Amino acid sequence: MGNVRSFVGNSMGGLRGGQNVASWVVAGTIAYFLWVKPSLDLKKEQQARAALAVAESNQYVEKRKPIADPQVTGLIYGNKNKPQD
């Protein structure tokens, strides 16, 4: 039992008490800012992009063809087959 306790103590850096807790706090803080926070920020950014894409897809889109000008198409007499400048 003593060997297990010494192994665990040595694997944690051999620190005891307040020093051990402080070292774990520092390690946890560094791990949070290096791994956890960037992944959370990436998820938030992806959700914002997805929400923006959904909002843009719901915009009104004209589905009818525009009505051509009858003078240009030659439907009104006197303007058939004239080249446009």
From TrEMBL:
<keyword id="KW-0812">Transmembrane</keyword>
<protein>
    <submittedName>
        <fullName>Uncharacterized protein</fullName>
    </submittedName>
</protein>
<keyword id="KW-0472">Membrane</keyword>
<feature type="transmembrane region" description="Helical">
    <location>
        <begin position="20"/>
        <end position="36"/>
    </location>
</feature>
<keyword id="KW-1133">Transmembrane helix</keyword>
